[in-house]
Amino acid sequence: MIRYNASLRAARKFKGNLKGFRKASKKKIKKVVDKHNKL
């Protein structure tokens, strides 16, 4: 359950960052996504 809550928090944070991703380079996006996939 703790892990589920943590992933929910991460998803919310990730969603909030999506607007910024449009400005970011694809390389940077891939890096961030890879980081999320490792968690």
Mind explaining what this structure looks like?
This protein is an all-alpha fold and 39 residues long. It has one domain. Helix content is 90%, strand content 0%. The protein has 2 helices and no strands. The model has no long low-confidence stretch (mean pLDDT 69).
List keywords for this structure.
flat, 39 residues, 2 helices
Global Rg: 11 Å
User: Strand fraction band?
Assistant: under 5%
Helix content class: over 70%
Structural class, judged by helices and strands? mainly alpha
Q: What is the tally of beta strands? A: 0
Number of separate domains: 1
- Provide mean pLDDT, rounded: 69
- Overall, the morphology is flat
Roughly how many Å apart are the termini? 15 Å
- Counted by DSSP, the helix tally is 2
Uncertain spans, ≥5 residues at pLDDT below 50? none
User: How is the biggest beta sheet arranged?
Assistant: none
Order of helices and strands: HH
Summed up, what is this model?
This protein is an all-alpha fold. It has two helices and no strands.
Helix and strand topology:
Layout (H helix, E strand, L loop, with lengths): L1 H22 L2 H13 L1
